């Protein structure tokens, strides 16, 4: 029996995002210290395996930009990123995504931030193919 493992969706999305958003820092961890202007942190919150080779995933995107008193850059970047990461064309690229679950697209919404940065958050649901 073949072992099926889920893809590293955070890595794939970060690499894809870097190609679409030059000048924006993308990764799956928050940097230590002061948050940079123009940061997107991608977190895969897992999901269920769907036979035989697929996995459902909900991914959270935290967007940091601007300041608390000028949160427009965070909102603008979050809306742009949402458009990029929920693009119906993504399943046709050379990657693990086979479909986007529109019912799992939530946000972007503004979130409180302790540093003098503006923060937004959104989620996107994906079905991805595993590997053997």
Can you describe this structure?
The protein is of the alpha+beta class and 132 residues long. It has one domain: 2-Layer Sandwich (STM4215-like). The protein has 2 helices and 6 strands. Strands 1, 2, 3, 4, 5 and 6 form a 6-stranded mixed beta sheet that branches. A hairpin with a 6-residue loop joins strand 5 and strand 6. The longest helix has 14 residues.
CATH superfamily annotation: Phage tail protein-like
Beta content? 35-45%
Please identify the top-level CATH class: Alpha Beta
Assign the CATH architecture.
Answer: 2-Layer Sandwich
Taken in chain order, the helices and strands follow as HEEEEHEE
Major β-sheet annotation: 6 strands, mixed
Query: Which residues sit in consecutive blocks of at least 5 with pLDDT less than 50?
Result: none
The count of DSSP E runs of length 2 or more, i.e. the number of strands, is 6
CATH topology: the name is: STM4215-like
So how many helices?
2
- Mean pLDDT across all amino acids: 95
- Radius of gyration, whole Å: 15 Å
Helix content: 10-25%
């Amino acid at each position: 029996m073949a072992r099926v493992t889920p893809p590293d969706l955070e890595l794939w999305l970060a690499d894809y995002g870097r190609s679409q958003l030059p000048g924006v820092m993308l990764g799956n961890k928050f940097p230590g210290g002061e948050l940079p202007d123009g940061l997107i942190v991608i977190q895969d919150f897992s999901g269920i395996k769907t036979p035989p080779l697929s996995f459902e995933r909900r991914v959270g995107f935290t967007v940091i930009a601007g300041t608390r008193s000028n949160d427009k850059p965070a909102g603008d970047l979050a809306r742009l990123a949402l458009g990029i990461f929920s693009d119906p064309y993504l399943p046709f690229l050379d990657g693990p995504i086979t479909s986007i679950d529109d019912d799992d697209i939530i946000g972007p919404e503004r979130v409180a931030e302790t540093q003098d940065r503006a923060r937004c958050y959104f989620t996107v649901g994906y079905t991805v193919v595993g590997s053997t």
